[in-house]
Amino acid sequence: MTTRKFTMTEFYITRILRLDAHMFLVGSNRRRVDIVKAHPEIKKLMGYDPATKYKVAVSVAIQIMALHLLQGASWYTWVFFCYTLSGSINHMMTLAMHEISHNLGVRD
User: Fold this and answer.
1) What is the 3-state secondary structure (H, E, C) of 23-85?
2) Do 1 and 31 share a structural domain?
């Protein structure tokens, strides 16, 4: 059996990972754990959503289609659609980027 020397950083990380993880949860993480303990049925709502990639593709297609359909429209029509349609799609894209940052955009 061979032994490997650990650096101090590896030693401390290993020690922290071995401790009870629940005592390190603070704020929203502790709240999430408490909610899941009280209502375990919520876990089926968490995780990967296979429709995310399709929603993003449809949203981009709608924006491109709106660009084509609004050619020659008056400036106030452009302002209205830029504020409502593009603003809503921009918000949806921000939420999609948030999901992707949590590795929930596509299945591994």
Assistant:
1) HHCCCHHHHHHHHHHHCHHHHHHCCCCCCHHHHHHHHHHHHHHHHHHCCCCCHHHHHHHHHHH
2) yes
